[in-house]
Amino acid sequence: MADKVLMKGNEAIAEAAIIAGCRHYFGYPITPQTEIAAYMAKKMPKIGGAFLQAESEIAAINMVYGVAAAGRRVMTSSSSPGISLKSEGLSYMAGSDLPALVVNVQRGGPGLGGIQPSQSDYFQATRGSGHGDYHMIVLAPASVQEMAELTVKGFELADTYRMTSMILADGTMGQMMEPVSLEFDVKPAPEKPWATVGTKLQRKHNIVNSLSLVPEELEQLNFERYEKYNYIKENEAMYEEYLMDDAEYAIAAFGIASRVAKNAVNEARKQGIKVGMIRPITLWPFPVAPFKKAADKVKAIISVELSMGQMIEDVRLATECKVPVTLCNRVGGMIVSPEQVLEAIKEVAENGGAK
Amino acid sequence: MVVFDKPHSLNEMSMHYCPGCTHGIIHRLVAEVMDELGIEGRTIGVAPVGCSVMAYNYFNCDMIEAAHGRAPAVATGVKRADPENHVVFTYQGDGDLASIGMAETVHAAARNENITVIFVNNAIYGMTGGQMAPTSLPGQVTQTSPYGRDVNHCGYPIKVCEMLSQLDGPEYLERVTVNSVKAVRNAKKAIKKAFQNQLDGKGFSLVEVVSSCPTNWGLTPQQALKWIDEKMIPYYPLGVYKDRSAGEDK
Amino acid sequence: MAKLTFKTDNCKGCGLCVDACPKNILQLSPDKINKKGHHPAELTDEAACIGCASCAIMCPDCVIKVER
Known about the structure:
The structure holds three protein chains of three kinds.
Chain A: E1 4-8, H1 9-19, E2 24-27, H2 34-43, E3 50-53, H3 57-69, E4 74-78, H4 80-95, E5 100-106, H5 122-126, E6 137-139, H6 144-161, E7 164-170, H7 171-175, E8 177-181, E9 207-208, H8 215-235, E10 239-242, E11 249-252, H9 255-270, E12 275-280, E13 282-284, H10 288-295, E14 300-305, H11 311-318, E15 325-329, H12 338-350
Parallel strand pairs in A: 2-3, 2-4, 4-5, 5-7, 6-7, 11-12, 11-14, 14-15
Antiparallel strand pairs in A: 1-8, 6-13, 10-12
Helix pairs in contact in A: 1-2, 1-6, 3-4, 9-12, 10-11
Chain B: E1 2-4, H1 23-37, E2 43-47, E3 62-65, H2 71-81, E4 87-93, H3 94-100, H4 102-110, E5 116-121, E6 124-125, E7 131-132, H5 151-154, H6 160-164, E8 172-177, H7 181-199, E9 205-210, H8 214-217, H9 221-235, E10 239-243, E11 248-249
Parallel strand pairs in B: 2-3, 2-4, 4-5, 5-9, 8-9
Antiparallel strand pairs in B: 6-7, 8-10, 10-11
Helix pairs in contact in B: 1-7, 3-4
Chain C: E1 3-6, H1 16-20, E2 26-28, E3 41-43, H2 54-58, E4 64-67
Antiparallel strand pairs in C: 1-4, 2-3
């Protein structure tokens, strides 16, 4: 194993992005992710890159749009309210099939909300977040190591599929310090013959564009994009199963919630309850397969979330409502405790799965 | 000897603009400048939302369509992706540049972003059918100011060159028009300078072109050009508002 | 001797060239209609053209090529 360094989650994202070949970062200050911008501001000028503090989140995502159109690896980061502002740009990026990495270190909402951790942007991330039919690849790290790994992976997936990858973290993940190994085999960016870098008078002009006024053509573009999405669903879903082999009950949790839930699973096992956990690492594409499998053998699933119940809808869809799915949650910047999750497991186990 | 022909940087497509709309002239001037500076092959243009939304179809250089008002931010990204090689211009109307995209405009100017901005001011939203623009004149009748723009109700027009000239950032700001042969020649000079400044690394150069919208002004193309002289120019005086290298501030 | 060539089908019949001509030898054709459905610009007196290109400079649609 390579040497490890102690880093904050936010810093790990920034350093991993640089390792992945990202030389352009645009952002706007917002808690709790500003360390990413600060790190980039320090590093980029020293490695021939560009850091720019934009006048707004909207400008930042459009600067990202410009660099992505020019075929370079580029990123921005923000937190929940800022992602709402970027959502216009995210829709345009999807419509123009541009690759980039966007980080959302979530905080409680809606509105200005709070500055404490949350997972309540799950819908926003997995269903959009702007207008029109589109998806982003959504990656949910549960450790500082994964913050770094999924950042590299995010750039690679973005380039492979010409779409936005989003790291959906939360305030805890961003601020937490853990040892992290930063040795990666980075897949270099593929050729981008579509990029707007000047024709050199050697080809027809490239146009990066999301406007398509002929309905038949726009429909076809949507169909083609969804063929790509279907391929990604089949091939890129990532998840971790924990003690699921003999599980009678399952937890569904991602990110910080999965770390809390893991403690509760261990404690429940000590008390003789056969419970396991499925941790989606990609939230889109949602890992349907392990839930489908679980639906045929567990008696109930508990979705542990820092939201009013958002991922639970995907769990229900994936299990086709074959088993009851209940919610164990805290919101507004509060975090579920292992005791709360253990109680939820016990309650479900006592009822033998029935609600 | 050919004394006048379509420039190479403009392609053969017939433009979608209304008869007599001066967008076509301004497109051509930008293309002529690209030809003369020999930069078509390394220029990336950024189109706005508005009447010139489909400008990307007409230029032979690489083109990007930006979200409404965001062209200066997109241009910032493209420019910074390869500052040595990319020549970047935005082409924006008054709604795009001075209303929904004002923040992007002001900050690109304040940063002295090394881009060229072609700002077409025709005092109306053309694409959506003639609504009041940030530059519509006091008293001007539009679809959304049917009794004339009442400055007590919805405020005054924004004079972009004057406003930006107060910033330390921008290199070059000039207002021109295209309502006569002489004016078109002047406009071309300004546009050429705005591109040359970028090649020389001087920074943010904006040319405001006072333009016409015969369709939504309810005038013939000829009347519209006269209306520029009679109504637009008195409110939006032509001239150089900033030329830092030349030490000029209006 | 100046020569004007018109891409007649690109003409939108706006007449800006007609007004720009210092010799008053351009008109919108009273009898022709182009593919776009406009009366296109045409020269009334070829011999009188001085090839100043004023018409082409004011044309928003690059209809006119000027040779001298």
